[in-house]
Design brief:
The complex is a heterodimer of chains A (410) and B (272). With 410 residues, chain A is an alpha+beta fold. Chain A contains nine helices and 20 strands. Chain A is globular and about 80 Å long. Chain B is an all-alpha fold and 272 residues long. The radius of gyration of chain B is 19 Å and the shape is globular. The chains are: A alpha+beta (410), B mainly alpha (272). Chain B: It is found in: Cell inner membrane.
């Protein structure tokens, strides 16, 4: 039996503010006399959402702002009630929705541990047992008897996270909490979450804008869009779809704003296109096949000593590669007019997915930037990959073999 | 009623933790600390005693400060419980939006917090009784029952008021006014015997007197305050004639108020 069952969940909110006493009285009068009442405009935050989650599953929920993610979690945590439909949760729920909601600034760290424990429903006995562990994890030994109002904001969230994750429940609901504290603490939080998820086998619902985290932790992802389940299933596929959606949104807004690149005005990028291994123009590149990238530029002022460079990056701006033209071609001067430069790539190593390209031109020994732009073109890498390569961005040319321990030692 | 008691038991640790929080944050940076809580009835008692010097209120052989303080103990407890209780849901908006537990915990906690302050007031009363050499009688065992009754009255108003306050903040504005009016409708400054003398013996309002007295005793505080004075100081048994109209009214309204609160509860997070 599914541990969480959501059937045709619909949540409507009324738009606008509370009506005046006069309106309310008039509406009541109309209702009594069976006349139509004045209804405020309604907004569907969730529209007929249905899904099931089995025990031990780790499910990510992604979507744009206002897609209904938090509303959905609120229903699972029993904070809001559905307008229509039903939510069945079989087990205890630990809501880590914005940790530190119950942290009171006047109380000391230690007092807050007990207070928040009580709010989350952890018995005092359990907290007492775990007190040292919680304090230890929060890295706040020195400040634990200081009022929280004297804490830095990072210290407060550390405390909140430490308390919340010490809770033992069947279902963990996590909303944007992994990005807590400094880098080393974030690492610790992430490890703690992974421990909860992978080793303790809890059922976890994760909402985050950090798609990489979702992809890494979840075994199923639900993509919400305007209150409707847009796609559901394999993390890789759903996340790629989400990137695609985001890209479209980014592109749309970019086309509205006049330029997406910076330049000195000496050079203009006219066109950027790909060719496949047969030299034919293409929109998609194929994994492990040769291809070429063509930059058509318009030189407005004559320039000297040029270096070109391009790189691939993911749609969330993780730089994957760069490749500069230094030592490959030496262009001392370029006359005015339209020129095309090409970069040939052998056996494209990028794994299937969605990527983007950045491009720059510098001039002179001091590498003065003449042109630079990111997200210049989005493209998809297609193709089949062997089962040995699953996640990541690149294929590694590697091979497994079994070595006899005795010979290996020599 | 049973549901409330059960929840009270089930969430006792949460209520204890929230009560502790309420008390700590209220008095932490105050030098006098929790003494502020009892300053209110003590000051009122002093003012009333001073007033009595001008007006002249008949209290028999019992010292007026003592009788007033015995009246102020349940009154202040009731008044503070209600005004805290009505605001308890809206002032915890952050928690309501994040975590679920039965929302009646908030009015309950507000009341339990005041219970702590009530205990201190009793300490002062004990001191006064020693000073005036008044020995408590066996009737003192009625006191817990009266406290429980006061709690039930306060909860009845808190549940309804707190739920309404989420939708209409007017309630929080109206409650202090209503409470200060109610104080004059309760035998805090004057003893109940004075009202009884006017209405029941002298029949001051003519043929309406008995009905008027019934209306007056519909206020549960009348029975409670008079009861406190009787069992603590006068060493007599409670006046059941003054108690029952208010008690019936309260017991009739408690389920309705609780039902209303539970019904409204589902939308707290959306509306608050």
């Amino acid at each position: 039996m599914a541990i969480i069952e959501v059937n045709h969940l619909t949540k409507e909110y009324q738009l606008g503010h509370l009506t005046s006493a006069k309106e309310t009285a008039l509406n009541a009068l109309r209702r009594l006399t069976f006349q139509p009442t004045l209804e405020r405009e309604r907004f569907k935050a969730l529209d007929d959402v249905s899904f099931q989650i089995e025990e031990g599953e780790v499910v990510g929920i992604i979507g744009h702002n206002g897609a209904g993610k938090s509303t959905l979690l609120k229903h699972l945590a029993n904070i809001s009630k559905p307008t229509k439909g039903e939510v069945i949760v079989r087990g205890s729920v630990a809501p880590l929705i914005e940790v530190g909601a119950g942290v009171n600034p006047e109380l000391t760290g230690r007092e807050n541990i007990f207070l928040n424990g009580a709010i989350l429903g952890i018995p005092k006995r359990v907290i007492q047992q775990k007190l040292d562990e919680i304090i230890d994890f929060s890295e706040l030994e020195q400040f634990i008897d200081t009022p929280v109002k004297r804490y830095s904001s990072g210290m407060t969230v550390k405390l909140g996270f430490s308390i919340a994750t010490s809770m033992e429940a069947d279902i963990l609901i996590v909303d944007e909490v992994l990005a807590v504290g400094d880098l080393s603490f974030q690492r610790k939080c992430f490890d703690r979450m992974e421990d909860l998820i992978k080793r303790q086998g809890r059922t976890v619902l994760l909402v985050s804008h950090n798609i990489r985290q979702i992809q890494r932790l979840c075994n199923r992802v639900i993509l919400l869009d305007h209150g409707v389940i847009h796609m559901e299933g394999d993390p890789q596929k759903v996340c790629d779809r989400f990137y695609e959606q985001s890209d479209k949104k980014i592109k749309d807004t970019m086309e509205l704003s006049s330029s997406k690149s910076i330049g000195s005005g000496e050079i203009d990028l006219m066109e950027l296109y790909f060719c496949n291994e047969f030299g034919k123009r293409t929109e998609d590149l194929t994994y492990k096949k040769d291809c070429s990238i063509h930059f058509k530029i318009n030189v407005i002022h004559e320039i000297e000593d040029l270096t070109f460079g391009f790189g691939f990056h993911t749609t969330d701006f993780l730089y994957l590669t760069t490749h500069n033209s230094e030592e490959q071609i030496n262009i001392e001067r370029i006359p005015r007019g339209i020129t095309e430069i090409t970069c040939n790539i052998k056996q494209l190593p990028l794994l299937p997915g969605i990527y983007s390209i950045r491009f720059g031109i510098t001039s002179g020994k001091s590498a003065r930037t003449i042109f630079y732009g990111e997200n210049m073109k989005h493209f998809q890498v297609i193709g089949k990959i062997p089962i040995t390569i699953r996640d990541g961005f690149f294929a590694l040319d590697a091979k497994w073999e079994q070595t006899d321990a005795n010979t290996a030692a020599i | 009623m049973l549901r409330i008691a059960y929840n009270l038991y089930l969430y006792r640790e949460l209520i204890a933790a929230l009560t502790y929080k309420n008390i700590v944050i209220r008095y932490k940076q105050a030098y006098l600390g929790i003494l502020w809580a009892v300053l209110k009835p003590v000051m009122l008692m002093l003012v009333f005693t001073l007033m009595k010097g001008f007006i002249g209120i008949e209290t028999g052989s019992i010292p007026y400060p003592l009788i007033t303080f015995a009246a102020l103990i349940p009154w202040v407890f009731f008044q503070e419980s209600v005004s805290e209780g009505v605001n308890s849901v809206t002032s915890n908006a952050a928690l309501i939006k994040k975590i679920y537990f039965p929302r009646e915990i908030f009015p309950l906690t507000a009341m339990v917090t005041k219970l702590v302050e009530l205990a201190i007031s009793f300490g002062i009363l004990a001191g006064m009784m020693v000073y005036y050499r008044i020995i408590p009688s066996a009737y003192i065992w009625w006191v817990p029952a009266f406290i429980l009754y006061t709690m039930v009255v306060a909860l009845t108003i808190s549940f309804f008021g707190a739920a309404m306050n989420v939708y209409y903040r007017d309630v929080a504005q109206a409650i202090p006014i209503a409470l200060s009016l109610l104080m004059y409708g309760s035998p805090v400054i004057y003893p109940l015997s004075l009202v009884q003398k006017k209405l029941l013996i002298e029949q001051a309002a003519g043929e309406w007197s008995d009905r008027l007295y019934m209306l007056y005793t519909l206020n549960p505080l009348v029975g409670i305050i008079d009861g406190f004075q009787r069992v603590l100081i006068k060493a007599t048994e409670p006046d059941f004639g003054a108690l029952y109209p208010g008690l019936i009214l309260t017991l009739a309204f408690l389920p309705i108020s609780y039902w209303f609160f539970k019904r409204a509860e589902s939308w707290f997070a959306d509306v608050i």
